[in-house]
Design goal:
Blueprint lengths: L1 E5 L6 H10 L7 E4 L10 H9 L4 E4 L3 H6 L10 H13 L2 H8 L6 E4 L6 E3 L14 H9 L6 E3 L7 E6 L2 E6 L4 E5 L5 E5 L13 E7 L4 E7 L3 H11 L3 H5 L6
């Protein structure tokens, strides 16, 4: 199976469209969406509509911003800018698109079954959809949680990264550069983050995504340019906090 993997679009339709244009000539059996379709950016409807137009099977889990924008969570843990964007999103999205976001399933979600499962997806961690996996100890808890898949793709941190579980513990690897490949080892387990399409935070402003061939066990990552200034103008015109536009220039 060949997968396109995207996460954390955050209402940035310009970035998401650029990613989809980049892969338009590639064949995928399914697309894996790791949550946070909305929040921060000013094009939430566009992101949902692009997702609806994708060919083939699409597996999606909800993110924390999806929950707040849909009214499932009150956003008490959000900073002022994030909460303002979530409320703006709730008020501006079409009823049908907001319903779709509200009905997104909670992760983890098993994609390829087995004993243990071969492939799963979640937003934050297999242990808790809202947990950030920044360090080895947090990843260790994720590895111990159900469903115990060989490979789990996760989002939430906006950092392209890999956590590898081996006999000695867990090793973290940040994925640098605008492209690369990693062949997975059958005797190890992996938690893999494709980074963010719509709001990168690794000081690289280019939209980030991954592809995975589960037969060859090769993960590849890529960064693509998109019209950042256009996305910023949309945020400014919407009256959203200026910081949400400014950070797109710096990838942080």
């Amino acid at each position: 199976m060949r997968y396109l993997i995207v996460s954390d679009m955050h209402g940035n339709g310009d970035a998401f469209r650029a990613v989809l244009r980049t892969v338009r000539r590639k064949r995928f059996d399914a697309t894996l969406v790791l949550g946070d379709l909305v929040g921060y950016g000013a094009s939430p409807d566009h992101v949902v509509e692009l997702l609806n137009d994708l060919p083939g099977t699409v597996h999606t889990v909800r993110g924390n911003h999806d929950k707040v924008a849909a009214g499932i969570d009150d956003g008490a843990s959000f900073n002022a800018a994030a909460l303002a964007a979530a409320r703006w999103t709730m008020e501006r999205m079409t009823a049908s698109n907001l319903k779709l976001v509200r009905e997104l399933p909670e992760g983890p979600l098993v994609i390829e079954d087995g004993d243990p499962p071969k492939l799963a997806i979640c937003h934050g961690s297999p242990a808790d959809e809202d947990t950030y996996l920044f360090a080895e100890q947090e990843a260790w808890s994720g590895f111990q949680a159900a469903p115990g898949a060989h490979v789990t793709f996760f989002g939430h941190t906006h950092l392209p990264s890999v956590f590898i579980q081996h006999r000695g513990g867990v090793r973290a690897v940040l994925l640098r550069g605008n492209r690369g490949r990693l062949r997975l080892h059958p005797g190890l387990r992996y938690l893999i983050n494709p980074g963010s399409v719509g709001q990168p935070r690794d000081r690289n402003p280019l939209a980030s995504f991954m592809m995975f061939d589960s037969e060859s066990q090769v993960v590849s990552w890529k960064r693509v340019r998109y019209p950042i200034r256009r996305a910023q103008r949309r945020i400014e015109k919407a009256g959203l906090p200026k910081s949400l536009a400014e950070r797109l220039s710096y990838g942080m």
